[in-house]
Amino acid sequence: MLIKGERTYLGPMDGKAWNSLYQAHLDPEFDCLVNVDIYPMTIEEVVGLYSRFTNPNTGRCFQIFDNRDQPIGFIGLCEIDWKNRNAEFHIGIWDKSKRNNGHGKEATGILIEYSFKQLNLHRLYSVAFLDNGIAKKLFLSMKFTQEAVLKDVFYIDGRYRHGVLFSLINKRHYKTKE
Length: 178
Ligand SMILES: CC(C)(COP(=O)(O)OP(=O)(O)OC[C@H]1O[C@@H](n2cnc3c(N)ncnc32)[C@H](O)[C@@H]1OP(=O)(O)O)[C@@H](O)C(=O)NCCC(=O)NCCS
Fold this sequence. Notes:
Number of domains: 1
Bound molecules: coenzyme A
Number of strands: 8
CATH superfamily: Gcn5-related N-acetyltransferase (GNAT)
């Protein structure tokens, strides 16, 4: 099954998708931006790393396609807390030529609708690097709230970096859409 938007749609993570994600993780910048430990990973290790997204008890994992049916990225939820109805949101457009083209926003919008209307989640949250201006723009334009600056929360390349916690509450999302 596919979850369709206008110019972007979400499909399952098939074998090819794992290979694309593996290729993306060969770029240390991508490792860093999606906040994983930076070391040379095998494809099996990449698949293992994403098990918190692929285990249906704790996550959801999708491949992002553009309107030419090209796979361009990954989007998903992890740490789903079914009692409190919270989940952590992640996105990465691994095809750099397809960034800044609206796909991130549209894919995020699709996952928000799916999270609230299908999974009945209440709150989505994500932590981005404080200096990841594009992620910040993405979250703010999708009506996430900047909740807090998390000091020294990431340790990368020999230094600590600050993060920003963004969240989106179900009711607030639908109120701002009305
Ligand atoms: C962050 C990311 C998912 C955004 O997806 P995208 O498809 O590139 O972004 P979109 O085209 O949907 O644009 C989202 C917002 O960022 C802005 N933006 C995107 N690229 C930009 C750029 N290079 N310079 C300035 N602004 C940019 C857009 O204008 C838009 O803001 P607006 O609605 O206020 O106009 C994508 O760039 C990516 O995968 N980056 C690397 C991984 C990463 O940082 N993941 C997030 C970790 S929390």
